[in-house]
Design a protein that fits this description.
8 strands, 3-stranded antiparallel β-sheet, 5-stranded antiparallel β-sheet, alpha+beta, about 40% strand, about 120 residues
Amino acid sequence: MSSTAATQSDGYYIPPSYIESGDYKKKSVSQHAGSKGTNQSQLYGVVRFELPIKSVCTHCNYVIGKGTRFNAKKDTVGAYFSTKIYSFTFKCYECKGKLVMQTNPKDADYDFVSGIRRKVQ
């Protein structure tokens, strides 16, 4: 009959002299120091964004199809009542021009801010 306190629930014994020396605390604190997140969104604000409709780059007139995916920088730019308005900034595949879109919760749509426009059918 062993207690989990004796094994520290890790399956091995840690002697009291090791804990009293302070080495145990130094190791456990330093191994998690500086961690700011585990993925691109938490570290840099970069998300995988998929275009909801067919669009055109205004820099080079390249047609970007619906469903094309980009690594986009996601920023909060405002709010509509309690719903956040997000801005997505990404680059055109052809000319590397800056494209900016925003969510529009009022109309349940997207606003094309700069560098991009809707493709007229």
